[in-house]
Amino acid sequence: MIKTTVKVSGMACTMCEAHINEAIRGAFSVKKVKSNHSKGETIILSEEPLDEAAIRRTIEATGYTIGEITSQHVEKKVGIVDFIRRKL
C-alpha cells in the first residue's frame, strides 16, 4: 500500500475537502482519500504509486495550490476478521 501526502493551500472548509477528494477519486484508482483543511493536507492510499505531476494537475485544476508531495510504503492494516482467520 502506498500513502501519498499532499500539502494543499487554500482549503477553508469541509466542502473544500470534499471537492479535492472527489477530484482525486475521479482521476485515480485509490483505496482511500482524506483531506483536512485544518492541517492543509490530503492523504491518499493506493495500491500502486501515483504520478506526482498528475496529482498536482488534478488538485490545481480544482483551484487549490499544491506544496510538497511525499509518498511512502505502508503496511495494510489487518482487520479483526482477518486477524481471527489467521489464528484458525
Automatic annotation (TrEMBL):
Q: Which InterPro entries match?
A: HMA_dom (IPR006121), HMA_dom_sf (IPR036163)
Among PROSITE patterns, the record links this protein to:
HMA_2 (PS50846)
Annotated HMA domain ranges read 2-67
Top-level taxonomic group = Bacteria
Protein name as it appears in the record: Heavy-metal-associated domain-containing protein
Report the transmembrane regions from the record: none
Pfam families annotated for this entry? HMA (PF00403)
Q: What is the lineage of its organism?
A: Bacteria, Bacillati, Bacillota, Clostridia, Eubacteriales
